[in-house]
């Protein structure tokens, strides 16, 4: 099985599309304001005409490369390209001002790849045991799991939990449009035939994260500092002694970030902040953290990509996204006919093995690509915004239409784009909408199935240890942030 998966990945066409994904991810990740979520959202429908292995290879290339490339602008112009690279600016830009831009870029790509590879090893060893355990789930357990996943709306709600919950409810309401899952009764279609099949999540996520982002940037008319001063790049690859000195802290950061990534709702920004802060507390070089420390930079870069394996483990085995990107990837896998969850490890083992090997190849590919293009990396930041905007709009229209060859999906994309723009102006988080749209049907259908099996007895939801644990975790996820906020207020007062 593993040999067959390896041969499938080494197919020249698969490697080509992965390389395309790596290049696209590098460009989008390096441009401030654009995100990996947006890149995967607009590229997913374009891959619909490809073989599953080819399409997923492109998306894996974008995912892994985009997270790493966010550090390029953070290092060169003190502006994080992605949220995961928010801590990279502290030591990376300080190294650039010190004349060590090349070394900073080299550390960024090398340790991002190391973090990604370590997290992929975790995925390979942990995914199948977790999936086997999840096979014990029935309708009640799946409902509790979906509820737990929906509670992660709080974790991805950015500044306001209340706004995040509102957006999650909006996504849940959108999921109810169409034919009822139990009796095929039309709901909220208002006589529109195109709504009988429901609102597809693909044009919604393209509109929110693609077209909506373009509208926001045009409205704000950003004058971003993308003209990079021509500095001496210098040495790119660290010395052997530096590798040796950095090994203990970066290994620790990789292990911590894998665990953080496996927690639904956590992301690269959280992992990089925690790992950098912990490194500063226990490092011998703690005085230089934030002042151009190579170790501080290596730690945060390791954490950036280190969360990917953990997030993918949670997404693949339980069908719950570990971060915003995996929330979109769930939709991508469903488009390929793969339902994330324990059954995928039984019915599509070969595909799972292919995905794991893709993760390894993608990390190695962006490592080589990043080292070869480090000296030319600054040129990515000089691409005119207008060209980027036009390209994204075209891809958004084509991608929305390509799913069902439907103009109605394009209309949905435009409507969601305008909606996303308006919501963004009022600081409403957008990922909870996708989470509610994807997990809403899972929660509803399993709730009704469980009640049908128990003849309306709600005690079925506390009838097994698994569902009880999941419900307790849901309660903790909902109450925990409130208690932490109160404790922080008491401490400050």
TrEMBL record:
It holds the Pfam family TctA. Residues 15-435 form the DUF112 domain. The keyword Endoplasmic reticulum does not apply. Keywords: Membrane, Transmembrane, Transmembrane helix. It comes from the Bacteria. The chain crosses the membrane at residues 15-48, 102-128, 140-157, 164-186, 198-216, 246-263, 318-338, 350-374, 386-403, 410-438, 458-483. This is Tripartite tricarboxylate transporter permease. It comes from Candidatus Lachnoclostridium stercoravium. The lineage of its organism: Bacteria, Bacillati, Bacillota, Clostridia, Lachnospirales.
């Amino acid at each position: 099985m593993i040999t067959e998966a390896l041969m499938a990945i080494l197919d020249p066409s698969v490697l080509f599309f992965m390389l395309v994904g790596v290049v696209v991810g590098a460009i989008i990740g390096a441009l401030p304001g654009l995100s990996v979520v947006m890149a995967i959202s607009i590229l997913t429908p374009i891959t619909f005409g490809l073989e599953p292995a080819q399409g997923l290879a492109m998306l894996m290339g974008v995912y892994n490369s985009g997270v790493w490339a966010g550090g390029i602008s953070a290092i060169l112009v003190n502006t994080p390209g992605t949220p995961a690279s928010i801590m990279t600016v502290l030591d990376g830009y300080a190294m650039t001002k010190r004349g060590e831009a090349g070394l900073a870029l080299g550390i960024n790509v090398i340790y991002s790849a190391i973090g990604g590879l370590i997290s992929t090893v975790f995925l390979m060893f942990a995914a199948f045991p977790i999936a086997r355990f999840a096979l014990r789930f029935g309708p009640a357990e799946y409902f509790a799991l979906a509820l737990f996943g929906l509670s992660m709306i709080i974790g991805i709600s950015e500044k306001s939990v209340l706004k995040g919950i509102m957006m999650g409810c909006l996504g849940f309401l959108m999921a109810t449009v169409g034919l009822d899952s139990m009796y095929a009764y039309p709901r909220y279609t208002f006589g529109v035939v195109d709504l009988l099949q429901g609102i597809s999540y693909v044009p919604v996520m393209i509109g929110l994260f693609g077209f909506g982002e373009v509208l926001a940037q045009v409205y704000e008319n950003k004058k971003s500092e993308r003209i990079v001063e021509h500095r001496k790049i210098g040495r790119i690859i660290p010395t052997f002694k530096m590798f040796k000195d950095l090994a203990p802290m970066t290994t620790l950061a990789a292990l911590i970030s894998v665990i953080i990534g496996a927690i639904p709702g956590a992301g690269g920004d959280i992992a990089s902040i925690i790992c950098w802060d912990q490194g500063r507390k226990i490092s011998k070089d703690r005085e230089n953290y934030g002042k151009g420390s190579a170790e501080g930079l290596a730690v945060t870069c390791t954490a950036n990509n280190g969360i990917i394996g953990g997030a993918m483990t949670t997404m693949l085995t339980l069908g719950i996204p570990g971060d915003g990107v995996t929330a979109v990837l769930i939709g991508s896998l469903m488009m390929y006919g793969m339902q994330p969850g324990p059954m995928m490890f039984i019915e599509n083992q070969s595909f799972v093995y292919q995905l794991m090997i893709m993760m390894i190849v993608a990390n190695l590919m962006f490592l080589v690509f990043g080292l070869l293009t480090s000296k030319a990396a600054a040129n990515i930041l000089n691409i005119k915004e207008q060209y980027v905007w036009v390209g994204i709009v075209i891809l958004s229209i084509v991608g929305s239409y390509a799913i069902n060859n439907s103009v109605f999906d394009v209309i949905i994309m435009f409507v969601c784009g305008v909606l996303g723009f308006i919501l963004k102006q009022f600081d409403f988080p957008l990922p909870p909408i996708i989470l509610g749209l994807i997990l809403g049907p899972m929660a509803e259908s399993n709730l009704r199935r469980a009640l049908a099996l128990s003849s309306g007895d709600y005690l079925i939801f506390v009838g097994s240890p698994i569902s009880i644990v999941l419900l307790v975790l849901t309660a903790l996820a909902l109450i925990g942030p409130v208690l932490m906020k109160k404790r922080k207020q008491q401490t400050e007062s």
